[in-house]
Amino acid sequence: MPEEADGAMRTPAAPEKANGGDRPAATAVNIPLVNEIQLTAATGGAELSCYRCTVPFGVVVLIAGVVVTAVAYSFNSHGSTISYFGLVLLSAGLVLLASSVVCWKLRLERRKERRRESQTALVANQRSIFT
């Protein structure tokens, strides 16, 4: 069995009666903690593309919110559970779409920054060649 990690969580196993005693025998089960490198390897780097995932979910939730809210208000059920549920879906859809826009803008800024850095390095290298 591999060595125990320092941050591994320990949980008790299913209770079993040991030799007919009243107290169950507790065994420790190690749950390994996952680091960022393992997460990237498992997901193929998909955690860095949050806006690609939240746009479709945001659109679906927003459409569901519009439909539920329209149905609730067409039956004049203001203040009912279904109208609140529709408003929650509407707001969740808007939040998902807004977060995808924010992620997209941040990614564009990072891309522009990298281009500026590479352009600066290229110009500096070109100047050193000609001087």
What's the gist of this structure?
This protein is 63% helix and 6% strand.
What does this protein structure show overall?
Helices cover 63% and strands 6% of the residues. It is flat and about 80 Å long. α2 runs antiparallel to α3. The protein has a two-stranded antiparallel sheet with strand order 1-2. The chain is mainly alpha-helical. It contains three helices and two strands. The model has no long low-confidence stretch (mean pLDDT 76).
Task: Based on Cα principal axes, name the global outline.
Answer: flat
Q: Which bin fits the share of residues in helices?
A: 55-70%
H/E order of the elements?
EEHHH
Radius of gyration (Å): 27 Å
What would the average pLDDT be, to the nearest integer?
Answer: 76
The oligomeric state of the chains shown is single chain
Low-confidence residue ranges:
none
Counting DSSP H or I runs of 4 or more residues, the number of helices is 3
Helix/strand structural class: mainly alpha
**In whole angstroms, how far apart are the ends?**
62 Å
Q: Beta-sheet strand percentage?
A: 5-15%
Strand tally, please?
2
Strand order of the largest sheet: 1-2
How would you sum up the major sheet? 2 strands, antiparallel
Descriptors:
about 130 residues; mainly alpha; two-stranded antiparallel ribbon; 3 helices; 2 strands; about 65% helix; flat
Q: What's the layout of helices and strands?
A:
Blueprint lengths: L8 E4 L15 E4 L4 H8 L6 H25 L6 H50 L1
Helix pairs in contact: 2-3
